[in-house]
Design goal:
single chain; four-stranded mixed beta sheet; disordered N terminus
Length: 165
């Protein structure tokens, strides 16, 4: 039974490969439904588009092209000892990319709680694990993004933690 499934899978893959290589010249193929798709020719380079980091979506690395916020412009006195204190700006200064901390089944969150002419207060928190759910005891340091109403410019970033949500 397993051998038959593997054979059908290989035959289907080979048939799909034959269809892909037997396209008419010019890079236009006709799908079985009658729709026409244009494929890029070998002379047209395919340029991958950068993937923006939408606010609220954690990632492992700092977005390319981000600018570090100077340590003198970060007030992290309210953070627990050992909590990351790294902040970058992107998108013309309207996005703060902040190294956060999360663990187990939780996920880091950030929210611009206050924005004045002199500072921006960002509340960092973590989602609460579901009750009865087994979680690992690891600590991760993702980069989260927080949208600002206006570019950061010379304002100070004040980092605080809030209880899990």
């Amino acid at each position: 039974m397993v051998g038959t499934g593997a054979f059908l899978l290989m035959a289907t893959a080979c048939a799909g490969q034959d269809m892909a290589t037997s396209q008419p010249a010019g890079g236009v193929s006709t799908a079985p439904t009658g729709s026409v798709s244009t494929l890029p020719s070998a002379s047209e380079p395919v340029v991958p588009q950068p993937t923006p980091n939408p606010p609220g979506k954690p990632r492992l690395t700092v977005p390319e092209g981000s600018t570090p916020v100077p340590a003198a412009k970060i007030d992290a006195t309210a953070l627990p000892a050992g909590f990351p204190r790294e902040v970058w700006t992107s998108n013309g200064g309207t996005i703060l990319d902040i190294r956060a901390q999360e663990g187990g089944c939780g996920h880091a969150l950030g929210e611009a709680a206050e924005q004045t002419a002199g500072h921006v207060v960002v509340n960092l928190s973590e989602t609460k694990a579901q009750t009865g759910q087994m979680c690992t005891m690891d600590i991760r340091y993702p980069v989260i993004s927080v949208a600002l109403a206006a570019p950061l410019d010379q304002r100070t970033v004040v980092l605080k933690t809030t209880p899990p949500k």
